[in-house]
Write a structure and sequence with these properties.
Belongs to the WhiB family. 31% of the residues lie in helices and 0% in strands. The chain has 106 residues and is mostly helical.
């Protein structure tokens, strides 16, 4: 380990950019050129994915609760609508809710 000052005991490379680490909430939109970079800031990426893909007739309440406080909810919903996602909870909406939203928009 290289030291910048042998008296301080602080390594030269002590700072690691949190954006490079993928720390949620510190990335600017598409800062790395990846249109899906928002996904690493999503709360669902940090929880059980099964809650977001319930079996037919299963509850969506837990997934929607998580989505309600997610800071990338809008990007998630936009992605789902643009890519015609047919399964799961995206941006806080079920497939049925996204379908209704598309119909109202057309």
């Amino acid at each position: 380990m290289a030291l910048s000052d042998s008296r301080s005991g602080v390594p030269e490379d002590w700072f690691i950019d949190p954006v490079r680490l993928g720390v949620p909430g510190v990335r600017t939109e598409n800062s790395d050129g990846d249109p899906l970079s928002w996904q690493s800031d999503s709360l669902c990426a940090q929880t059980d994915p099964e809650a977001f893909f319930p079996e037919k007739g299963g509850s969506t309440r837990d997934a929607k609760k998580i989505c309600s406080s997610c800071e990338v909810r809008t990007q998630c919903l936009q992605y789902a609508l643009a890519n015609d996602e047919r399964f799961g909870i995206w941006g806080g909406l079920s497939e049925r809710e996204r379908r209704k939203l598309r119909k109202r928009a057309s």
